[in-house]
Write a structure and sequence with these properties.
The complex is a heterodimer. By secondary structure, chain A is mainly beta. Chain A is 13% helix and 42% strand. Chain B starts with a helix and ends with a strand. Classes of the chains: A mainly beta, B mainly beta. Strand 1 of chain A pairs antiparallel with strand 4 of chain B, so a sheet runs across the interface.
């Protein structure tokens, strides 16, 4: 019986030894694939005081057959002074048939995408927080009349706690002025924390903006 | 689980009818065994799913067919065919393959929409089951049929660690699913055939099922709610073993 017990110990020991020694590392790298292509980005606005009053601006990338950008064009954003607008982002990939609505996919991938909106010029640096749609480091130009525009994101993702996205916004205009609106989509995979810094930019464009 | 309970009940009822006429008292015993351990259900799946259509499988275990060794015993209640039985077994359910690593790399790359996905895995599923429960035996001369229900714990020694790096715009974003040494509730049932070779020695062929709702899994550096996230790994295994049993 003692021999048998020893045999059991040897059997168990051998199994444990085999198991501990036979573990190896498996590694895999997926080949590089192209991100979604954005060929057109639009901001569409509806005046809160008058739903019939709508406006928009569109930035278009023109591509050759190899998907290289050959030229760009953009339309001017015109907003009424002292007004509030509900804004919606609409982005397309026109290289696909039928045309692919990228903004719908951004909504599905909302937990690691974040839109930023930066009016320029600015006379004083905006307050930058985790909920700010403004871009840190934007130069302040006190000598220049500012673009009188403030922006608030109105949508939230499903992170815990929820973070803003920026597919929908409220634009509030002040007195008549003109400048630019920088519109940036940050892609922050497993890094989104409400700030601008993590990740990289999927889109970074400017719209000439006139408040009249 | 329901199927198992019904099967055990049918076996119990069938053999009760056979043994009603000629009851022979079984004797207490212990045994050593070894055999094959086959993962089932979510534990056996090697599937990532698709992020956009919401089919990501957080519980797929990527476990492989492995082996089990252990000790078993039953102590009969005086003058009955009922016994209190216990099993201690060690299982190895393998590790992730190169294909599994590719599945994870591609899955996380898609889920986070990045340029690159990289998955590295090391470590194996290794655990100990400690199970006790009632056993009923049907004795036919040299042959005994035992059916048993079990409850107990599964103690994990290790689970495969999965180190993931998704890279976008040249910026790496790493995170990991760590190896677990957690314990969890386990349950199951078994049926076996014991054949007496001598008064104190026999051989036993056993089919055993063990399941656990899950052992806790720790993940590190998960910032956003996206991609596969396994926080509790369910375990489900079928084991076919052959052993030697010794009467007391």
């Amino acid at each position: 019986m003692i021999k048998l017990k020893h045999g059991v110990y040897v059997l168990l020991g051998t199994a444990l030894f085999y198991a501990s020694c036979s573990s190896k590392t498996e590694e895999a790298v997926q080949p590089n694939i192209a991100n979604e292509t954005i060929t057109q980005a639009s901001l569409k606005f509806t005046n809160q005081a008058n739903p019939a009053d709508t406006t928009s601006c569109t930035y278009t990338f023109h591509l050759d057959n190899n998907d290289n950008v050959t030229s760009v064009d953009s339309t001017t954003l015109k907003l009424k002074a002292n007004s509030k607008y509900n804004g919606v982002v609409y982005m397309l990939d026109q290289t696909q048939t039928p045309v692919f609505v990228v903004s719908n996919e951004i909504k599905q991938r909302e937990n690691y995408h974040l839109f930023f909106y930066q009016p320029t010029p600015i006379s004083t640096a905006p307050v930058i927080s985790n909920n700010s749609p403004y871009i840190p480091g934007t130069p302040v130009t006190p000598g220049q009349p500012p673009l009188n525009l403030s922006i608030v994101r109105t949508d939230l993702d499903t992170n815990n706690p929820p973070l803003q996205i920026g597919l929908t916004t409220v634009f509030t205009t002040g007195a008549a002025s003109s400048g630019n609106l920088r519109f940036v989509l940050r892609h922050q995979p497993n890094a989104k924390n409400g700030t601008y810094a993590p990740g990289s930019s999927d889109l970074d464009v400017n719209f000439i903006t006139i408040i009249q | 689980m329901k199927k198992l309970i019904i099967t055990l009940a049918v076996i119990l009822a069938t053999f009760s009818a056979f043994t009603a006429k000629a009851q022979v008292q079984p004797g207490s015993y212990w045994s050593i065994f070894g055999g094959v351990s086959v993962p089932a259900g979510e534990f056996a799946k090697s599937f990532y799913g698709n992020f956009l259509d919401g089919t990501i499988d957080n519980k797929a275990g990527f476990a492989k067919t492995g082996y089990t060794v252990g000790l078993d015993g039953a102590w009969y209640i005086h003058k009955t065919n009922w016994a209190i039985a216990a099993t201690v077994s060690y299982q190895d359910q393998g590790q992730l393959s190169a294909n599994d690593a590719h599945t994870l790399a591609a899955g996380y790359q898609d889920a986070f929409g990045t340029d690159l996905g990289q998955a590295t895995s090391h470590g194996r599923y290794q655990n100990l089951n400690v199970l006790v429960g009632p056993q009923y035996s049907f004795v036919f001369s040299k042959l005994t049929v035992d059916v048993r229900a079990n409850v107990g714990i599964v103690k994990s020694f290790s689970t495969p660690e999965m180190d993931i790096v998704v890279t976008d715009g040249g910026i790496p974003h790493p995170f990991a699913q760590l190896s677990s040494t957690a314990s969890a509730f386990a349950y199951g049932g078994s049926a076996d055939l014991r054949y007496k070779l001598s008064k104190k020695l026999g051989i036993v062929l056993k089919e055993n099922y063990v399941a656990s709702p899950g052992i806790a899994i720790t993940n590190t550096d998960r910032v956003n709610n996206a991609g596969r996230l396994d926080t509790k790994q369910p375990i489900s295994i079928f084991q076919t073993t052959l052993g030697l049993n010794f009467g007391f």
